[in-house]
């Protein structure tokens, strides 16, 4: 991992969620128990105080780490990889840069509980542990503003289905399910190259795709209790879920 890599730690709520440092390149991300309606998160990243045009990572780059979580079906999401923070979920928390929304670009291992449906394509897995890539045009935020006019249409299933089909023409995806026991420690590695992305689990190539993200991306490791779903039937749901205490243990983090 580069000596100059500067990591940021975010916990929500700050007095209950936690991040414990476990030796060199190791962390324990912890969420407290709680009811639905309250967002809980623990996150490590390297972009919190940067504008998107200064995000660090471009291909070729590889991220590898060992990870395990406390339960096989944790409510919400968790994962690790690179993305462009398209929706700016930190909303300026703890000195974060406030960014306007953009279209998503990401390459990561992403776990989404069954409450989520995170694929615009009907032929790709939409929840569970995924090796996944998002590729979108680098359209400035100001040019996306007119699209906000169409957001009320998401409440109408027929219109939402049309918008979902339109969305996959703009936002490209590729993904494959990762079938491992997530409560056991596994070594994950992704290699983001200029012409392809490769995902390895325990040293074996699990998934390869020629779809690659665009632009500069930031490194992120997180666990939270939120969900989002945009189903083929045109149903749109999002929010936070009740959870028991949850943990994700990370070790051997390397970015090369």
Describe the protein's architecture and organization.
This protein has 256 residues and is mainly beta. It is 7% helix and 39% strand. The longest helix has 14 residues. It is globular. It starts with 7 loop residues before the first strand and ends with a strand.
Can you tag this structure with a few keywords?
single chain; seven-stranded antiparallel β-sheet; 16 strands; globular
Termini separation comes to: 6 Å
Counting helices, strands and paired strands, the structural category is mainly beta
Number of strands: 16
What does the largest sheet look like?
A: 7 strands, antiparallel
- Helix count equals 2
Quick one: overall form?
A: globular
Can you lay out the helices and strands and say which pair or pack?
Elements: E1 8-12, E2 18-21, E3 27-31, E4 41-45, E5 61-69, E6 77-83, E7 106-112, E8 128-135, H1 141-144, H2 157-170, E9 172-177, E10 186-192, E11 197-201, E12 204-209, E13 218-224, E14 226-230, E15 236-240, E16 246-255
Antiparallel strand pairs: 1-4, 2-3, 3-16, 4-13, 5-10, 5-16, 6-7, 6-13, 7-8, 8-9, 10-11, 11-12, 14-15
